[in-house]
Amino acid sequence: MTVLSPRPDLWTLDPGVLHLNHGSYGAVPRRPQELLAELRAETEANPMRWFRSVAGRLAASRLELAAYLQTDPAGFALVPNASAGVTAALVTLDTAGAIPAGSRIVLTNHAYGAVLYAAERFARINQAEVVIVDVPLEADDATVVAAIATAVDDRTAALIVDQISSATAMVFPIRQLAELCGAHDVPLIVDGAHAPALIDAPAEDGADFWTGNFHKWPASPRATAGLVVAEKWRTATLPLIVSWSERDERLPERFDMQGTYDYAPWIAAPESLRVLAELDWSRRRPQLSAMIDDGAKLVAKALGTGVAEVARPAATMRLVELPFDGVPSPEAGEAFKTKVSEELKAEITLTAFDSRVFVRLSAHAYNSPHDYELLAARLPTVL
Known about the structure:
By secondary structure, the chain is α/β, with parallel strands linked by helices. It has helices at 22-25, 30-45, 47-69, 82-95, 113-125, 141-149, 174-184, 251-256, 264-278, 281-303, 330-344, 369-378, and strands at residues 18-19, 76-79, 104-108, 129-133, 156-162, 188-191, 209-213, 225-229, 317-321, 346-347, 350-353, 356-362.
């Protein structure tokens, strides 16, 4: 098999920095950046003409993005990020009276912090309860489903589950969980923030609501994400901002026109999909998986620790344990990342799970094995 070469030339990333945290904010390639700049210049050249053109351009962009996800375009709306998508789903359930007093919103201990906060808000509003199911890192699909099944019953208002967890880079069995929820008539909300480009057709698994970011692995401009809504909920699902599209009977169009929002990222997003195609992403992704496997082992060996044993790890992320005595405070964690950035010229992120602290490493097409070799040499010097 031909090994594809890294393509940092397609990005404008600082070559003097090790960029090892694509999973947080992504990195936009050069061509989508240029298109974004052109669209914003066009906006300022004639704002009236620009806003007259937005509806048609958004419709074209949505069709391309929905086709990439292999999902029904009639149920696909654009949102700023996956957190907004989850919130829109919870608003829909709340408005429909599907979160009654005494009910339970179920999540796992892998849930993203902002998603947990959203669940807590709607539970508080409705005098409901948030239930957290413990799922071990090493749990296989059957164990994951069995653990979650213990909390899914006639009191469950919704199950919110990651498709790929942010904190642990673990892939969850969405299809089986959709079957579980379907059997109990429980709405399923899937936080697929990391799923586009890492999982093929991520929104096809029968969830009531699925949401995922294009600004992560597809490398689209930031504040670009999708919300996929099952047909039974489409009429009731409304955007978080009440604007002029409020009375449009079509789900996607209701979410399109949010006043003077900056629509350029949504319109430019498909250009990033064309960059992925140029990168031969379907062949490159498994090669990045092999590279991140080797790179994580190298860093772990240098630290005298190990790579977390995740039953189904995400294609391009791995967890390397840090030799910390306990979980640092958020302030201490940020200070450590800043120190690594300034002293080692490396961008990383930390995650914590079950009293363990990890560096969550990423791999994208601009990375090379040498990046992980350099991190392995440098990181022990600041511990």
